[in-house]
Amino acid sequence: MHIDQWLETVPAVSVYLLVGIVIGLESLGIPLPGEIVLVSATLLAASQDHINPYILGTCAVAGAVIGDSIGYLIGRKGGQPLLAWLGRKFPKHFSAEHVATAERSFQKWGMWAVFVGRFIALLRIFAGPLAGVLRMPYWKFLIANVLGGIVWAGGTTAVIYSLGKVAEDWLKRFSWLGLVLALLFGLGSMLVMKWRSKKAKAAAVTAADSETAEPEPVPAGD
Fold this sequence. Notes:
Elements: H1 3-8, H2 12-28, H3 34-47, H4 53-89, H5 96-109, H6 111-117, H7 121-133, H8 138-171, H9 176-212
Helix pairs in contact: 2-3, 2-4, 3-4, 3-8, 3-9, 4-7, 4-8, 5-6, 5-7, 6-7, 6-8, 8-9
Family: Belongs to the DedA family.
Subcellular location: Cell membrane
Pfam families: VTT_dom
């Protein structure tokens, strides 16, 4: 069977569910590749007419908002012991250093950390549970959560779908090769965005550390 024919047999509902569930679990605090799944599914939608990008984007937004909200409630109930348990369970993602970095971001930026964190892999996992642990007012968290979910999930779907459509139309004569190249193009764009986000985050953390550093004592005169 030709790969295009096989892709046409993939039920659209299964793609929607996969995207919503993976992004929801990642937002809840489980380290999963939500962004990669969303980009891959969006590129698939660009090449397969039976997958609706609007429904796909809606499922991604719903997964992000619901997952973050559940993570917030779990964090609020579990408190610091929850972070300690996550550190033992997922030491690569919830190490003491990562938790401290995320806490500094939340203390400095408040609800903006929830919004901006949606675009940064580390903070995307932390946002819900940590906001609950730090007792951020839920109404503030909800506003930042919903807006961040719409801009990140909806925006990513729109941008990658548009790029995928252009790439698919240009490369359609190469069949499966065109799909692979479009996927690589989308993933490359995602990695560039993630690299820029990490660079901006590192600069923000450095600035926050310099502000909180105590000034060196001035030597007393003779």
